[in-house]
């Protein structure tokens, strides 16, 4: 199960890798397609969970 989670996070990271100059809101929208939790998105983007929640609310 942990391997599946790691693979999902790696795929998510690869999807936003070329979007590094995109706004946090756009990056969160992209990662939402993977149905990741706020905590997982924060991990992928190396940002605090609060920043992810704020970007999603914007």
Task: Give the structure's gist in a few sentences.
The protein is mainly alpha-helical and 58 residues long. Helix content is 72%, strand content 0%.
Topology:
Blueprint: H1 2-17, H2 24-32, H3 38-45, H4 49-57
Helix pairs in contact: 1-3, 2-4, 3-4
Number-wise, the strands total 0
Helix content: over 70%
Structural class: mainly alpha
What is the average of the pLDDT values?
88
- Rg from alpha-carbon coordinates: 11 Å
Global shape: globular
| Measured distance between first and last alpha carbons | 33 Å
Q: Write the H/E string, N to C.
A: HHHH
Main sheet overview: none
Low-confidence blocks of residues: none
Could you say how many structural domains there are in total? 1
Number of helices: 4
Kindly estimate the percentage of residues that lie in beta strands according to DSSP: under 5%
Structure description:
With 58 residues, the chain is mostly helical. It has one domain (2-57). It contains four helices and no strands. The termini are far apart. The mean pLDDT is 88.
């Amino acid at each position: 199960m942990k391997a599946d989670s790691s693979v999902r996070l790696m795929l998510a990271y690869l999807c936003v890798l070329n979007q590094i100059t995109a706004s946090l809101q756009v990056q969160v929208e992209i990662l939402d397609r993977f149905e990741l939790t706020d905590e997982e998105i924060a991990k992928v983007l190396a940002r605090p969970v609060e920043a992810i929640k704020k970007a999603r609310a914007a």
